[in-house]
Amino acid sequence: MEVTVSELDHIGEGAGEDTSSRATPVMAQFLVLKQANPGSLLFFRMGDFYELFFEDAEIAASALGITLTKRGKHMGEDIPMCGVPVHAADAYLQKLIRMGHRVAVCEQLEDPAEARKRGSKAVVKRDVVRLVTPGTLTEDNLLDSRSHNFLVSVTRNKATGDIAIAWADISSGELAVMQTSSNRLSADLTRLDPREIIAADTLLAEPEFTELLDRTGAPLTPLPAVKFDSLAAERRLKEQFDVKALEGFGSFTRPEISALGGLLEYVLITQAGKLPHFRPPRREVASSVLLIDPATRANLELTRTLGGERRGSLLSVIDDAITAAGSRCIASRLSNPLCDPYAIANRLDEVAHFVADPSLREDVRKLLARMPDLERALGRVAISRGGPRDLAAVRDGLMIAGHLAHRLGGSATISGLPENLDHICETLSWTDLDLARDLDAALDHELPAFARDGGFVKQGYSVDLDENRSLRDETRHVIAGLQARYSEISGIKSLKVKHNNVLGYFIEVPATSASLLQTADKAGLFIHRQTVASAMRFVTTELASLDQRIAAAAEKALALEQEIFSTLCARVDARRDLLSKIADASARLDAAAALAEVAERRRYVRPRVDGSTGFTVRGGRHPVVEAALQDKAAGSFVANDCDVSGDARRLCLLTGPNMAGKSTYLRQNALIVILAQMGSFVPAADAHFGVVDRLFSRVGAADDLARGRSTFMVEMVETAAILNQATERSFVILDEIGRGTATYDGLSIAWATLEHLHGENRCRALFATHYHELTQLAAKLPHLANATMKVKEWQDQIIFLHEVVAGVADRSYGIHVAQIAGLPAAVINRAQQVLERLERQGAKGPTSGLAEDLPLFAAAPAAKRESAVEKRLSGVVADELSPRDALALVYELKSLLAARQPS
Ligand SMILES: Nc1ncnc2c1ncn2[C@@H]1O[C@H](COP(=O)(O)OP(=O)(O)OP(=O)(O)O)[C@@H](O)[C@H]1O
């Protein structure tokens, strides 16, 4: 694309001079667009470059490491400027988006020749065609193919305080919404792992609320509150999905509708008025997913490690999907395990089917290897950002869907396919092979990325196109012939026929031989047009007419190709519902076959998840530690049982030396819960447990200094969350509670926590500690069992057997571990002396007979006799009370008090 010379000169006030304080027409155009897109870097198209000016240029130059220059002056000041070539713009965009910037892309909307017709100083029409923000990407090279790219919208109803979140992946068309509350908002957001969050500016003005959202690390984008108006949102949703009532999709609450509406509004703004294809909104019910708070999610390293890497996470071990969409499906299931035993069993049936039939699995996976990323291709076609390769993706997707349906259907035994697979198979069998064949007939073998330059329609598809193409191409041969002829006539060997936009086709000869064309007999044929540095240029009437024919044929061919492209895109768009269902079905199929592959390779078994409160795992293993040991051929993982069934010994107190494997054991059982409830087989010989509603952990040791919290404070905040929220259905793992403070403070807190979990929360819990004193509690608390890690002492060495057995550890062997870690011998010897002294004192010191002596424990039975007022109060979550509820509660408490006092 070219840019007019006059425009370049007039960015500032001519090159370098300051002739006026008025903005030039181009600069005025820039300033208007800049003002209309606040908060975004403006990529201003100038010919083959996107140029940035003023502060944008300074920011971009330093972010991208490109040269900052200046171009002209504005209001007497130099205009800072930098630019990126259009053909390489994606890489720069990606970098800027990763750094949290937003970019407004402004294009030239007409050919500069058009502008010239309006006068030599006329400015080319330009407008912002799109805002590129982290949550609204569609291009493959800007997206991570293996993870979702969620844009999340958050709303809160001022009157009721109800919060709703809506989320969408515009690259795949997924759209969902749910109602949540302030105390689970963080957990819900973390599981979605948003790339960008939008909310009303009024809401983001509340520091407490912003802090909650900030924890996700995603950039926050404020929108005017009116964009979330629920009535307008309802209208927009009905319009978008072409329905009279939204009830058909679920009974949405007001905040949910407003969250969805705000989200669509924002997408519309960023896509400059063109809404991508969205599937109808799916309403998620809060209780349908296993809630995992952000700290637990991070500490269990589900989708990435604490260091932020995918490698080493649970996902990296279980994701053996063939397609990117299959990987996204596994990642999403891992982040959102289910709570309904029936739905879990259905998913497990899919996996079991593929485990039982390895040849089906192999065939399906081979077919999936040829399955393109249909979801994302479709997403681009829907917003007119697709290219020929996206159409090819649709063609291949439709073909493969047919093969998959055929192979799956043929595998059904007498009892048929399991419910989910049957559904997948049915969806895939709806594939539109006519469309696939038509696309195949039209598309060439080698396809360019963009439709704009043509060259993607197969020879033989359109007679008209073929004719114009051969005219265009044959004339090229004619030109070559003409060049030879002119060269012969003139006797100039170096004569060339060339082309440029100004002269069209022309003859160029070295200035020294030009006289040969200007002799009397040749002057009629060769018409002089231009003299350049060392050459002269001529045209002939023959060349001029050819030029026109070639240009016309090439233009016609391109126009025909564009027409074919648009027709095919429209046909694809008309089938988008089907295509998006096929994309979804093949992603689920891939996930099921991949989980089966992992199950077989890693010897996982099908878990049983039911409505009980039991928890029995036999021969459980830690999936990631086991995989790491295998990779390094560093010995085998020692499998361990775990039995914390609700009505029996639902609490396990685990003591044992450092490095013996306590943390590993705690985590592996939590991971088994997550894997089972996401619908995967689990690393165990057998696993059977009652569905878990919420998973808690207190295992990390990181501080959160940014939020003014020390390590111990973080530990206590997390413990408080567990004690306040865990139910009988929850599963809790606690690792070394209280270690961050003075010994007796820590011990007392651990002690009281254990009692509370036992008597109040009544959840299933694993509790690892170095406070051996706590083991005395087993004698008093009927649902608490002691377990320990077995070690062997041999020739002054400790051998960790990593085996969990019933009983109590006698020592921590901390000094031994310190020695292995390389502490200086002098320190080790001294520590040994101090330990011996302390142990001698301790035998008659304050810790003996602790169970009887400790006031805290003495207070425990009293806790069972808590008053009605205390009982009522302990169940109250103050943050959830409205002023009216609080007043009613005070009256209620007064009456409870009055009822207790003797009249
Ligand atoms: N069951 C097992 N089989 C094989 N190796 C194991 C097993 N459990 C743990 N390990 C190995 O032992 C190492 C230490 O385990 P872990 O961190 O769980 O110990 P710990 O008892 O929690 O230690 P500390 O009390 O010092 O925190 C792990 O990194 C792992 O490699």
TrEMBL record:
Residues 543-602 form a coiled coil. Keywords: ATP-binding, Coiled coil, DNA damage, DNA repair, DNA-binding, Nucleotide-binding. PROSITE patterns: DNA_MISMATCH_REPAIR_2 (PS00486). It comes from the Bacteria. One of its GO terms (cellular component) is cytosol. The keyword Cell wall biogenesis/degradation does not apply. Residues 730-746 form the DNA mismatch repair proteins mutS family domain. Residues 1-20 are annotated as: Disordered. ATP binds at residues 656-663. GO terms for biological process: mismatch repair. InterPro entries: DNA_mismatch_repair_MutS, DNA_mismatch_repair_MutS-lik_N, DNA_mismatch_repair_MutS/MSH, DNA_mismatch_repair_MutS_C, DNA_mismatch_repair_MutS_clamp, DNA_mismatch_repair_MutS_core, DNA_mismatch_repair_MutS_N, DNA_mismatch_repair_MutS_sf. One of its GO terms (molecular function) is damaged DNA binding. The keyword Nucleotidyltransferase does not apply. PANTHER family: DNA MISMATCH REPAIR PROTEIN MSH1, MITOCHONDRIAL, DNA MISMATCH REPAIR PROTEIN MUTS FAMILY MEMBER. This protein is involved in the repair of mismatches in DNA. It is possible that it carries out the mismatch recognition step. This protein has a weak ATPase activity. Belongs to the DNA mismatch repair MutS family. This is DNA mismatch repair protein MutS. It comes from Aestuariivirga litoralis. The gene is mutS.
